[in-house]
Structure formats: structure tokens, C-alpha cells
What we know:
Shape: globular
Number of strands: 2
Structural class: mainly alpha
CATH topology: Mitochondrial carrier fold
CATH class: Mainly Alpha
Order of helices and strands: HHHEEHHHHHHHHH
Radius of gyration: 24 Å
CATH superfamily: Mitochondrial carrier domain
Strand order of the largest sheet: 1-2
Strand content: under 5%
Helix content: 55-70%
Amino acid sequence: MHALDPETARIVGLPTENDERKEDEIEPALRFGFRLVCSTALYPLEYAKTLIQLGYEPIAPRPGRTLFGAKRLMLPNIFQYASYIKSVDGFFGCFRGLSARLLGNVLSSYYSEKMAVVVIGKAPNRFDDFDWFEGTVEDWEKFLATKDGKVQTRPAGLMRKAVTHVCGILISHPFHVVSIRMMAQFIGREHMYDGLFGSIKEIWAHEGIGGFFSGLIPRMVMELSCMALTSSITYLFAKYSGANKTTCGHVNTIAHFSVTSVFYPYHVVSTCMAVQGSRLKAGNPPMMDHYINWRDCYARLLLDRQHKRGSSFFFR
């Protein structure tokens, strides 16, 4: 069965190839836009979580009850923490560092795949090296119905996804560091990182290009480990259970949540190392110990049982 002429398809009311291509382009853009809106709305909680990860606790523990009803002293939950930030800096102060975070996300989303293509080349087309003798009649029809045999590329494999993810992290990390330091200066009430360009100038002048990649390695370890394990769990479940796509999607979500919880300490280490080495009070004694490297930071946080700080939103 041959493809209909675009003009005929338009008259009949069927979607044309151009319409389908536009839909394929619009859907990811809408998903990304929705993600940016959610990130903006939840940013005050991310702000509070970052300060908790840095070990800053401005509100004294108060008597409370655990999930099981036991009495104990409890630190404020993340919503109370965010409310405290608002009481000090006002509503817009809760969004300090948001511009750098969003810019990093946009640049990462746009350029990560382009950078991955430069590193490992384009994904092969489904009909590259098409074998006319091995192909079925249906394969021939699909091939002949496409202009010059050009069709949508194969879904990316795990290696391609990993390379794309690494490229995205490398692109976004300098802005990630700037965002964390903008938030961290709340602790010492400094004004070194008040604007995006001023923050970039501050890091470049005192730390050089290496300052933009502070805390990169633990973040890379966490992100790649979570991606590899989540993908592997979902793949094995789909292969041996024969579950449908919806069920596999739920399994993927649960697996991602579980694996992220296991590797959460690397998130804390990355946040601490992003501030370490700066002139901020939050990154220097007595607010923060001096760490030789990220492994030393991980070991000492683990020793002090501080490697999970910020992981709980409610009972702390």
C-alpha cells in the first residue's frame, strides 16, 4: 500500500507526513515546558532542601511525634523551612538561583543530543543497508513509501542515552554550581552571587574554570548509576514478566525512586563540593569542614551519619 499524496490526504482529512512530523516535534516541547513550570513552582522546596544538604539548620528542634507516634525532638519539615526562607527574604527570595537553574536545563535539553552526535555519531536509520532479499513485502512497502528511504531513526540504546545524559550534565553543571552558590549565600547573608553574570565572574576570578565543575564527579556517579540500574530493572521486568507498556512504566517509576534513594548520599556530596572552595561562609569552617576531595567528603558525612540529610520532607 503506497502513501497518499499530501494534497489528497489533506482533502480526505487524513493526517499528512508533515502533520505527523509537527506533532512529533510539539509533544517533546510541551513535555519540556511542563517540566520547567513544575520546576519553577517547586523551586522553594528545592531551595530549602539544598540548605538542609549543606547542613544549615536555623530553626531549633521542637517536640514532636514520629510516623509511629513516638515522642522525640524534630527539626522543621521542608515546608516549614521554606516558610522560614520566605519570612527572611520575602516571596521572591524563595526563587534565588532559579534563573541559572532554568538556563542550565534549557541549554542541556537543547544541546545534549547535538553534542552526543558529535561524540558517537548519528543513530542509524531503520533502513540503512536495507537487504532486499531478506526483507519482507511489508518492509519493501515501507521502504518504497518513504522518500529516499529516510525514516525515523531507531530508538536510542542504553549507550547512546548514557552519552547524551553525560553531555547534558556537562553542559548544565556550571549553571548548577552557580544556582547552588546563589542559594548557599543565604546562610552567611553574603551578596557575592546576586546575578548570573556576577556569579560567573566571581567563580572565574577566584577558582578558574575548575570552579564551574565543582561536585561534578559525585553527581555523575549518581546520575549514571541511577539511569543504568533503572533501565536494567525495567528491561528485565519487561523481558521475563511479559507485562504491558503501562505496567512497565509504573515499574520504571518505582525502580527510579528506589535507586535514587540508594544513591542519594552522592547528591548530598555533590551539593557540598559545589560550595567547597568558594569564599562563602557556607563552604568554609566552621559552617563546613574542609574536605580533601569528594571521597573524603562522602566518608566523613557517612561517619557523622549526615549522608542522608535532606532526604526526608516531613519527619526529620
